[in-house]
Amino acid sequence: MTNALSDTAVLLAILGLGFVTLATRAFFLMPRRELPLPGWSRRAMKYAPLAALVAVALPEVLMVQGQLLTDLRNARLWAAVASLAWYAVRRGMLGPIVIGTAVYLPLKLGLGW
């Protein structure tokens, strides 16, 4: 016995989710004047992109298949360390990407880490 939804139910679900997404994203564009934010909130918003990047990238670097690293033979870890070191010495965006890739590829493809 299958429990499949009808085509109409699927279409209504897609339209409903699209409407909810549109409404929540457009909420900040609808007011005619800027919504006032408290000072603490404005200061915190400066760090939101960095916090989001760390929340996405750190588990990817420090975990393998849902488990914390137990071995230092991990190409992602050393690529991240090299990228951070490069960024600490010479600020910029392209350098850490190139250095991280230059460290990651030989370790992953060459040594099989």
Brief sketch in words of this structure:
The protein has helices at 7-26, 39-45, 48-62, 75-89, 94-110; strands at residues 63-64, 67-68. With 113 residues, it is mainly alpha-helical. The longest helix is centred in the N-terminal third of the chain and has 20 residues, at 7-26.
Keywords:
two-stranded antiparallel sheet
Structure description:
- Helix content is 65%, strand content 4%.
- By secondary structure, it is mainly α.
- Strand 1 (63-64) and strand 2 form a beta hairpin.
- Helix 4 (75-89) runs antiparallel to helix 5.
- The longest helix has 20 residues, at 7-26.
- The termini are far apart.
- The model has no long low-confidence stretch (mean pLDDT 89).
Percentage of residues in helical conformation:
55-70%
Q: Any idea what the radius of gyration is?
A: 22 Å
Gap between N and C termini: 46 Å
- Main beta sheet strand tally, sense and closure: 2 strands, antiparallel
Number of helices: 5
The averaged pLDDT comes out at 89
Please state roughly what percent of the residues sit in beta strands, choosing from under 5%, 5-15%, 15-25%, 25-35%, 35-45% or over 45%. under 5%
Specify the structural class: mainly alpha
Q: Count the strands? A: 2
Give helix and strand order, one letter per element, not per position: HHHEEHH
Shape: flat
pLDDT < 50 runs, ≥5 residues: none
**Side-by-side strand order of the widest sheet:** 1-2
Which helices and strands, and how do they pair?
Blueprint: H1 7-26, H2 39-45, H3 48-62, E1 63-64, E2 67-68, H4 75-89, H5 94-110
Helix pairs in contact: 4-5
